[in-house]
Design a protein that fits this description.
14 strands; alpha/beta; Aspartate Aminotransferase, domain 2; 2 domains; 12 helices; three-stranded antiparallel β-sheet; Aspartate Aminotransferase, domain 1
């Protein structure tokens, strides 16, 4: 079986460092907002090129706290993509605002700035682009649009740790950036974890207060907050992996090059632009024969996945609210996308095996 992701080789390579760090943390017995969380926040902020990085319990919480701290609430609209995991829209709902779904670019799969512009109304308060699959969204067009209409830009960086635009890290452009450390992410821990990046001292103070029951001083609660703190032991894992994130992302790019070279002409492969540095959280192809390819891979013992088979505006959770809305590009991509195995340790012979099965499915 060739899995979608294999976390074991990475742990084996880091086992000595991670195990020793966890044992030290256990011996120190400072488990909540301890020294490893503080150190990780400082190291992550330095890597991302921001003034502050505030750790929290998950990527979903990072989005939720970003919206809450930005003052977005009932009656407000937030424009985002329908081609993403539901957490992006859930977070908008959590603060009482309404998600407004824009269509996507057919080559990058990211939110299309032209669609965003057409959806702006007097109720629009923010734009929430997703750097999907590790490919940075078109912030070069979205940022001027937000400035023109006085909208808050919040980046969903759940899949893009280490991705850059003109050498600048995703998560360093908007009012804030929300990261996930789910185990399969490019920078993943061994449970749930998240991070919010920002240049703003005021927003960082809000994030720290909101993640800790609305408290700046122990037992003094200024607002109703949340229990959303990164675990000290997960911070140990993340500190070890952060040192090597560029290496891991370089390895992902090499795997992507092998796929793209071998698949040329057979399917639509991910777009690579000159100014963006893709980190390939997923390697996602497009084919009208998607289901045939997936079945062939499964029969050969090779994993694949569809991210995302049902776009958000068609999800039951929204109770038909968007029934009349048509997003033609999003709907076509959802019907044709297929993600192949992707992790840093994937070797070229294995990639060749996977591609051979893909091509055989297209011939059959």
């Amino acid at each position: 079986m060739i899995p979608m992701v294999n976390l074991k080789p990475q742990y084996q390579a880091l086992k000595e460092e991670i195990d020793a760090g966890i044992l030290r943390a256990l011996a120190d017995a400072q488990f909540i907002l301890g020294p490893n969380v503080t150190a990780f926040e400082q190291e992550a902020a330095a890597y991302l090129g921001v003034a502050h990085a505030v750790a929290c319990a998950s990527g979903t919480d990072a989005l939720h706290l970003s919206l809450r701290a930005a003052g977005i609430g009932p009656g407000d609209e937030v424009i985002t993509s329908a081609f993403t995991f539901i957490a992006t829209a859930e977070a908008i709902r959590y603060v009482g605002a309404r998600p407004v779904f824009a269509d996507i670019d057919p080559l990058t799969f990211n939110i299309d700035p032209r669609s965003v512009e057409a959806l702006i109304t007097s109720a629009t308060r923010a734009v929430l682009p997703v750097h999907l699959f590790g490919m940075p969204a078109d912030l070069g067009r979205l940022m001027p649009l937000c400035a023109q209409h006085k909208l808050t830009l919040i980046e969903d960086c759940a899949q893009s740790f280490g991705a850059t635009i003109d050498g600048r890290q995703t998560g360093s452009f908007g009012a804030s950036g929300a990261f996930s450390f789910f185990p399969s992410k490019n920078l993943g821990c061994y449970g749930d974890g998240g991070l919010i990046s920002t240049h703003s001292d005021a927003l960082a103070a809000q994030f720290r207060m909101l993640r800790n029951h609305g408290s700046k001083v122990r037992y003094h609660h200024d607002v109703i907050g949340y229990n959303s703190r990164l675990d000290e032991l997960q911070a140990v894992v993340l500190r070890a992996k952060l040192k090597r994130i560029d290496q891991y992302n370089d390895q992902r790019r090499q795997v992507a090059r092998w796929y793209t070279e071998l698949l040329e002409g057979a399917v639509q492969t991910p777009l690579v632009t000159d100014n963006a540095r893709h980190v390939y959280h997923q390697y996602t192809l497009l084919s009208p024969h998607r289901d045939r390819i997936a079945s062939k891979l499964q029969a050969a013992g090779i994993a694949s996945a569809i991210y995302y088979p049902i776009p958000l505006h068609r999800q039951i959770a929204f109770a038909g609210e968007y029934r009349a809305q048509e997003l033609p590009v999003t709907e076509r991509i959802s019907a044709q996308c297929l993600s192949l195995p992707m992790y840093p340790e994937l070797e070229e012979p294995t990639v060749r095996t996977i591609v051979a099965e893909v091509k055989e499915a297209l011939v059959g």
